[in-house]
Amino acid sequence: MRCVIARFPFDLTRSGVLESMKGIKPEHASGESVIIGRRTYPVKQVGQVITRQDRRDFSAGEVLRAMAQLGFTCRDLAPVPAPTRVLNPVQKASVMLGAPVAA
């Protein structure tokens, strides 16, 4: 498949990406990631390995798009859970008795 990453065209194949990432130890993935084989790699690490370019030269979106088109599982940033309201003991007891909690 032909794709453009950082304004450069690349001919990528699923087997080529698998071969390129073979033996590469995954870094800690705290943001967008790609599952290649049984390992989860950060998108920027995958992009650096397959394009041999500096991570600052391309965006994560370009690599995510290419990996998704090749059939790899891509994960976006994990959603931040909404803060939960902490109830005081009286409010807890009221909820347990079925009374609505005052805002």
Word description of this protein:
With 103 residues, the protein is of the alpha+beta class. It is 34% helix and 18% strand. The protein is built from four helices and five strands. It has a three-stranded antiparallel β-sheet with strand order 4-3-5. A two-stranded antiparallel ribbon has the order 1-2. It is elongated and about 65 Å long. The N and C termini lie far apart (55 Å).
Low-confidence stretches: none
SS-derived structural category: alpha+beta
What is the beta-strand fraction?
A: 15-25%
Largest sheet: 3 strands, antiparallel
Shape: elongated
Side by side, the strands of the main sheet go 4-3-5
**Roughly what is the average pLDDT, rounded to an integer?**
87
Radius of gyration: 22 Å
Give the topology string: H per helix, E per strand: EEHEEHHEH
User: Could you give the distance between the termini?
Assistant: 55 Å
- How many strand segments? 5
The total count of helices amounts to: 4
